[in-house]
Amino acid sequence: MSQVRNDKPFTLAGRAYQSRLLVGTGKYKDLDETRAAIEASGAEIVTVAVRRTNIGQNPGEPNLLDVISPSRYTILPNTAGCYDAEDAVRTCRLARELLDGHKLVKLEVLADQKTLFPNVIETLKAAEVLVKDGFDVMVYTSDDPIIARRLAEMGCIAVMPLAGLIGTGLGICNPYNLRIILEEATVPVLVDAGVGTASDATIAMELGCEAVLMNSAIAHAQHPVMMAEAMKYAIEAGRLAYLAGRMPKKLYASASSPLDGLIR
């Protein structure tokens, strides 16, 4: 994203990024499509499900890092598929070993396979352990402002409330809770999960989110590479609109041109 006057850089764990779009690597038809979509998105941070993707733990199998090089992208290991704190902590520690001491992780602890809703009790437990263990924790959570506040107080570097359930494409289901979370935020707030199309990403940015993380919206599109590019511009448009400040909503019409000095 081009530099915008009066904008602040998007910063995580002391590193500044130009793009405010973070993308996942799952659900594509093959690694070539994965690579092409990520390139089209302009993303600089790419999240990887350690339990489902080979990043070196399975020698002899195709390695995702061959198409998303850590020298080009910031790799964000995530704990997708974990349903308790112990499993999530173990997965983060495995990622740290595989990635030569890498500390930045995305924590998600799920409640059940039907909803993939976050289990906030287990999430809080895992976050406490990981922060004490020196990880830079970005955490997927519910849109509960109290839980978001607590996670920030514990030392998580970013909170990522869901916009809608993972993989549903329902968009921003509860903008009001997101607004409260954003009002109280002391760390970056990113929408994670639920985005379905470009307008959803734009709305998240217009609300004031620092960034958006998505996977299914791109990978499940009829043309993933094209959708990835659309998301790139949607994020930029939403950020610019947020910085510009929208006009107030009014009940009645207001003439676009002044009425004074009309020709009689």
From TrEMBL:
UniProt KW keywords: Cytoplasm, Schiff base, Thiamine biosynthesis, Transferase
Biochemical pathway: Cofactor biosynthesis; thiamine diphosphate biosynthesis
Catalytic activity as recorded in UniProt: [ThiS sulfur-carrier protein]-C-terminal-Gly-aminoethanethioate + 2-iminoacetate + 1-deoxy-D-xylulose 5-phosphate = [ThiS sulfur-carrier protein]-C-terminal Gly-Gly + 2-[(2R,5Z)-2-carboxy-4-methylthiazol-5(2H)-ylidene]ethyl phosphate + 2 H2O + H(+)
Catalytic residue positions: K106 (schiff-base intermediate with dxp)
Keyword Metal-binding attached: no
Domain spans labelled Thiazole synthase ThiG: 12-258
Binding, 1-deoxy-D-xylulose 5-phosphate: G167, A193, G194, N215, S216
Enzyme Commission identifier(s): 2.8.1.10
Enzymatic class: transferase
Coiled coil regions in record: none
Domain of life: Bacteria
Family note: Belongs to the ThiG family.
Subunit: Homotetramer. Forms heterodimers with either ThiH or ThiS.
PANTHER family assigned to the protein according to its UniProt record, in alphabetical order: THIAZOLE SYNTHASE
Entry protein name: Thiazole synthase
Organism: Pseudomonas aestuarii
Gene name in the database record: thiG
